[in-house]
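At this stage, I wrote out one protein, both as residues and as discrete backbone shape codes, and that material follows here.
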Amino acid sequence: MTGASQNRQVLLQDLSGDTVLYRLAELATEFGAQHIASTARNIAERVSEGRFYVACVGQFKRGKSTLLNALIGHSVLPTAVVPVTAVPTIIRHGERLAARVRFQNAGWTDIPVSTVEEYVSEEKNPENAKSVAGVEIFVPSSLLETGMCLVDTPGIGSVFARNTAATQAFIPHIDAAIVVIGADPPLSGDELQLVETVSQEVHDLVFVLNKADRANSAERSAALDFARRVLGTRLKRPLPAIFEVSALDRLEHSGTGRDWGQLVHALEDLVLHSGRSLVRKATDRGIQRAANQLLSVIREEQDALQRPVEQSEQRIAKLRETIAEGEGAMRDLGALLAGEQQRLSQVFVGRREVFLKQTQVLAQKELAEHLRSIAQRRNGPAYRRDLNHLAQRIARAQLRPWLEGESKHAEKVFCNTAQRFIEYGNSLLRRLAETGIPGLEPLPEELGREKRLRVQSHFYFHVMENVATPASPLLMISDLVLGGLGLRGGVVRDAQEFLDQLLEVNSSRVQNDVEERVRESRKKLDVEIKEVLREASAIADRALARAQTAQAAGTSAVERAVVRLAVVEREIRGILPSGDRAESLTRRSE
């Protein structure tokens, strides 16, 4: 390290937490680790202002966004009947309503609050296709005045795998959490895993049973008993109260029933008694995370400098050989699974034929039973519309449970199909790790076990309104004349044919939708594994370039670089607790 650098060097353990984070960001920038630098600066900024994050987490469609809107008294987060949130969204105190967005590798840009949905919703930004890195909404809420920031997270267990990953990636930044559960079902396996992971990072958890008004007393009691028993066993610590609330009732009618007052008091108490300690813990976690990531970068640099370039070339050649084999195997496996897809398509065709054969009989029987409910005094055209709309309701009611059943069957099929991809992908990751190339840390240790389809359903019921309410003048005149004579048999036969047509068309749409979801979900998993291969190849290229650059610089340049790295390493290790230092030293010696 040069004299100027030595004069600039500081002992990190003697600095305040935010100053340490800024220093780590500076070092990360020097080593080209922009992601580490950006994260460290963001944490430094919020802890210097005394802000801490309380994330709202849980299964998708628990009403998390609605709950946060109700807590702050402003409907700033989008809500809908489909999974909505695509990226974590931070709500913090402001003198007036305002919002801003930050994209990957870019700064903050102010946006109107009314446009937040364009960046955070799944409909307007599917699977974060716009590469939004963060959204902040400023709200004049008394609950947020003393530093608490509420965070809306994408729901886990949704069909959007990237959304679940976004929530998992945000966990290290959480200081406390509001865990939202429901009565039906009370807790899923994914939720239990998330709560357990969050509890390893933070201690303060607030549990909420939302949509309490949609379940009766017995259902709520059973859900709460189940949640307390399972969570107590899983977390291995006393479980705090579970607040029963209806966020929608609070938001739309200013309702204060059930446990709403207790929930708000619990959050206010969290700010009053734990706010400072949460900021301090956030600082410590941020420092340790950034420091350990930087030590990994330094280790990579040291390995590149000290290992003979021939050895680096041999190891990288092995990695590239593994990648090439992997790409070939993926092509072969993809072809086999494409054939499997064709077989599954025939299975879905057969299932639809069975469904139609059974359902058309039941639907026609139901139509006949309801004919008496259609007012006989209605004129011809109105009678036709009433009958056809009845056919629409019957067909929709028959198709809805079948769609759910087919989706479950498709998810089971997808699990079996995806298992071969995952098993091979994980064996490939193990082989890549065995090459010993430094810098492979960004690759996942293991691909997730697929439990759900990764593509949302796009099915909607085709009402065929042009048939239900025909605009033909001749048909209207015919209906009026025949209706006046009491001759309605033709209209009834048309309604029966319309019902069969509705079932035929919409069952075909269900079948196509399910097939497409399986096909696209398999493709997404295929792309994920190929991205792992591409990233490993890029890492190999960077490692070889560093080794060649270091060796080309000559012995004296290598020695100076080694000394510089050692000085920076000691500077960083000085701030780590003894346990972390020991772990880092162990990793360094491997």
